[in-house]
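Why this split exists: single-chain examples teach little about how molecules sit against one another. For that reason, every record in the complexes split bundles all components of an assembly together and asks for one structure covering all of them. Below is a record exactly as it appears in the raw files.
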Amino acid sequence: MRRRIPEWFVLLLPAFIVIAAVVLIPLIFSLYSSFTPYKLTRPSTLWRWIGTANYEKILTDVKFWSAFGRTILFLTIALNVELLLGLLIALMVNKVTWGQRTLRTILMFPMMFSPILVGFQFKFIFNDNIGLVNNALQSLGVSNAALPWLVDGNLAMFSIIFAEVWMSTSVFAILILAGLFAIPQDPLEAAKVDGCTPWQTFRHITLPFLMPFIFIAMTIRSLDVARAYDIVQIMTGGGPAGRTELLWTLMSRTGYVDARMGLANAMGYVSILLSIAFTVYFFKKLSAARAELGMGG
Amino acid sequence: MTEVTLSNVVKRYGKQQAVHGIDLDIQDGEFLVLVGPSGCGKSTTLRMIAGLEDISDGEISIGNRVVNDLPPRERNISMVFQNYALYPHMTVRENLGFTLQIAKQPEAQITRAVNEAAGILGLDELMDRKPAELSGGQRQRVAMGRAIVRQPDVFLFDEPLSNLDAKLRTQMRVEIKKLHQRVGNTIIYVTHDQVEAMTLADRIVLMRDGHIVQVGTPLELFNTPVNTFAATFIGSPPMNLADGVVSDAGTIVLRDSLTIPVPKSARAHVKPGQKVQLGFRADNLMPVGHAVEEKGELVDLELTVALTEPLGTETLLFADLAGLEVQAKMLNPRPVQPGEKLAFHLMLDKTHVFDAASGVALRG
């Protein structure tokens, strides 16, 4: 007699098929191809196994590691600036009693734009000849020379971070504002009676309450920023001379411009470690902050 | 010496007026209870004293210092909140010491004050736990401990026991009273529970709709309520009120032509034809032979019992008085069947007469 396929398997089969098609197979394929010299222009290279050669190449590749380091720097600066500004905005919006709803909606506007358009916008704003910033600086007499915002390495990095912060600070602001709404009023009032100045109340009561929200925002944003691509690609294309090259612009160049997909996939797997490390770190912080508040795990 | 004085204190929310000009003098060391139904303005009044609400009009002073424009931290008060309001991220020890830490007191002094408060409230075992790991009663004790550590001029309690179960509430009530006897500070205590008010207060302030109805000792409020509201709010079960009309013969005619003499205290204050309400407590309407002491002027009534509530030492009887359901109390109870007719004594000396239109007590 033929063995019957168990019911649970039949019921789960559609899910298995979908997951296999959209996650599992691409994952296995890309992992496999990272062990080959796969070039998009020469499909036959897919079948040549070269072991860990790609990975060994990456480990000694200065360009890769400088992009790696630059991504960490970019992440750290952008996240911290966004956190501080977002916190500040949230605290101020929380004080507003009239028209707060409208203000909250306006706050979300930057999130509604496509990152590519934000990139173009800031490319124009920071353009050294016709850009708004130089125009303003010169009109105000602050500077006579045209500052090379997108041409000088450090200034270009600053400009990209500026665009990133402009676009995403509101994510922090919204999440922290949600946190502020969720704070019970009683401990705040108790703190006032206990002798706290407004600053002490913020430092000792409000901030601990906000920490879980801050870490959730950090986790989400660290994943987002670590794969920053569009803004950078549009504004500088990783230039000048690779001075703003981040992991994802490097990977896309390697994979699609140089067509070396095997190597690009290997880079992808190495850089995922970065995202995992950040996620694990922030999740640990999140659980700790929640445990602080007696929220459990 | 810390007196608290409220003069003509008003609270407005927009056009809505929540507290209508309250005058109150609270003595040093007094235990004052603000009591009233929800929405009567008692909590708002307390929060204005604490500085958590702005004072729209009038003046509040604590220890001869006008505090209208002082933030809470400069009023030297402590407050115990209904929801405990502990800092969830701090241990019990840190919760207790927080106020002194903020005040930058030396570490040794903080430890001493915290340990002393913990000793008073029996918190020694719990010092390293977080609020989430405590039961409701323990949390409330920590909240009280936090108030003690601050050594304030005035303690403010905002319905501190309403989140506790009945048994714990009775226990904590005793602890609060003991605490007051021990520290002797002025306490202003808000509650909607008249039992708490009666048991704790040196003086009760009964409030309704943002006005003070009556101020007095618990017994004054119980024995001489100024109007029907005070009469029904204070005391359990609430005072029975029977509608009637004063006759020419100096009696009150209730429904079904039942007549009851006007009590002595009210005789000079009623006139024939006046519509009144006769008020008497269950303790003053007792089945013959089942009362504590039957003295003074007694009125004989024969009433049908509709329902009984045995409570052990006494039984509450729901009886029919000229079509009105009234409550009576039976001491040394015996089983009573619904529908049974019993002879009752109404103690006329302890009966009150209220004007039916205004509800004001008529007495000399």
